[in-house]
């Protein structure tokens, strides 16, 4: 409600016009300032609402528009018809140990190095891989599933960096390089299955670089 001043009947206004104008302008300014906190609160609420809506929409729509994981990771399935799971596991362990140091990545060339074996059982192998230049760490898991005399293996690599979305195919190469380095890809009947849907930037991966 606007501030209104009344004068007593017959009371003369002795203030000059300029003074009256200045006082009226000051009152309008003070009245406007008193409403600003409410305006800022309303604006902040609207911005927050819009951001939340965008996040929700993105989470629902992006998986359909962009067929890729929301976090940098990769899942690969392999079939080894000519090997049992013990043979596959032994070759992977041996290759990880060969590439433990940075010697195979001189001056940061390639990333076939800095693997660390964490644990190994008859059904699972866990390891990490560190990129030699920026030192990002990825977690690797191989699950071994005997299939008669054959072995089916599921590999999974994921970035420890929580905000990583794209990885230039690094998580794919983390797994693939161990398979090719150990020669498992040359065994009879070898099959590798993955796609961009479950493996970040798989189709553009360059495993000689990453």
Major sheet: order of its strands? 2-3-4-5-1-6
Structural class: alpha+beta
Q: So what's the overall shape?
A: elongated
Strand count, sense and barrel status of the largest sheet are: 6 strands, antiparallel
Kindly describe this structure.
The structure is a single chain. The chain is an alpha+beta fold. It is 36% helix and 21% strand. The protein contains 3 helices and 6 strands. A hairpin with a 6-residue loop joins strand 3 (124-130) and strand 4 (137-147). The radius of gyration is 33 Å and the shape is elongated. The termini are far apart.
Topology of this structure?
Elements: H1 17-65, E1 73-80, H2 85-98, E2 115-120, E3 124-130, E4 137-147, E5 150-159, H3 170-181, E6 191-193
Antiparallel strand pairs: 1-5, 1-6, 2-3, 3-4, 4-5
Quick tags:
210 residues; 3 helices
Question: How is this structure best summarized?
Answer:
The protein has 210 residues and is α+β, with helices and mostly antiparallel strands. It has 3 helices and 6 strands.
């Amino acid at each position: 409600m606007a501030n209104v001043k009344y004068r007593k009947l017959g009371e003369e206004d002795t203030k000059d016009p300029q003074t009256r104008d200045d006082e009226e302008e000051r009152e309008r300014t003070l009245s406007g300032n008193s409403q600003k906190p409410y305006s800022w609160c309303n604006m902040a609420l609207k911005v927050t609402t819009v951001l939340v809506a965008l996040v929700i929409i993105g989470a629902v729509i992006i998986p359909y528009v962009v067929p890729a994981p929301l976090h940098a990771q990769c899942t690969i399935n392999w079939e080894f018809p000519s090997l049992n799971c013990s043979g596959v596991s032994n070759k992977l362990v041996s290759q990880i140990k060969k590439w433990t140091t940075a010697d195979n990545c001189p001056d940061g060339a390639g990333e076939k190095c800095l693997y660390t074996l964490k644990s190994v059982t008859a059904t699972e192998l866990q390891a990490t891989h560190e990129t030699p230049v920026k030192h990002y760490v990825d977690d690797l898991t191989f699950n071994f599933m005997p299939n008669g005399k054959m072995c089916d293996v599921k590999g999974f690599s994921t970035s420890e960096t929580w905000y990583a979305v794209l990885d230039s195919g690094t998580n794919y190469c983390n797994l693939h390089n161990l398979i090719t380095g150990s020669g498992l890809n040359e065994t009879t009947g070898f099959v590798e299955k993955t796609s961009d849907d479950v493996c970040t930037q798989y189709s553009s991966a360059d495993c000689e670089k990453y």
